[in-house]
């Protein structure tokens, strides 16, 4: 499921948590500590977020999420 296939975008609860923290300008290490996961897992979630939103970066993901009303 991604923005390209016309289906509604559905991020997991964890992906939304990561996205909110990215929007709050947190780095991977801070996000990992806050969520009790490793930095590689943060990057994995970001990869999935980018695939689903059709973006290629943290900034792009946040901008697209705001446009789609996934985050305020």
Task: Give a structural overview.
With 72 residues, the chain is mainly α. The protein contains four helices and no strands. Helix 1 (13-23) crosses helix 3 (39-53), helix 1 (13-23) packs across helix 4 (58-67) and helix 3 (39-53) packs across helix 4. The radius of gyration is 11 Å and the shape is globular. The model has no long low-confidence stretch (mean pLDDT 93). Residues 4-69 form the HTH luxR-type domain.
List keywords for this structure.
single chain; 72 residues; mainly alpha; Arc Repressor Mutant, subunit A
Query: What is the CA-atom radius of gyration, in angstroms?
Result: 11 Å
Summed up, the helix count is 4
Q: SSE order in H/E notation?
A: HHHH
CATH class annotation:
Mainly Alpha
- The tally of domains stands at 1
Full CATH superfamily name? Winged helix-like DNA-binding domain superfamily/Winged helix DNA-binding domain
How many DSSP-defined strands?
A: 0
Shape: globular
Uncertain segments:
none
State the major sheet.
none
What is the strand and helix layout of this fold?
Blueprint: H1 13-23, H2 28-35, H3 39-53, H4 58-67
Give a short overview.
The protein is mostly helical. It has four helices and no strands.
């Amino acid at each position: 499921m991604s923005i390209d296939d016309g289906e509604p975008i559905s991020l997991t609860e964890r992906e939304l948590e990561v996205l909110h923290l990215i929007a709050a300008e947190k780095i991977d290490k801070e996000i990992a500590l806050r969520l009790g996961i490793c930095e590689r897992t943060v990057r994995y979630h970001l990869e999935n977020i980018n695939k689903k939103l059709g973006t290629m970066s943290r900034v792009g993901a946040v901008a697209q999420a705001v446009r789609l009303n996934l985050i305020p």
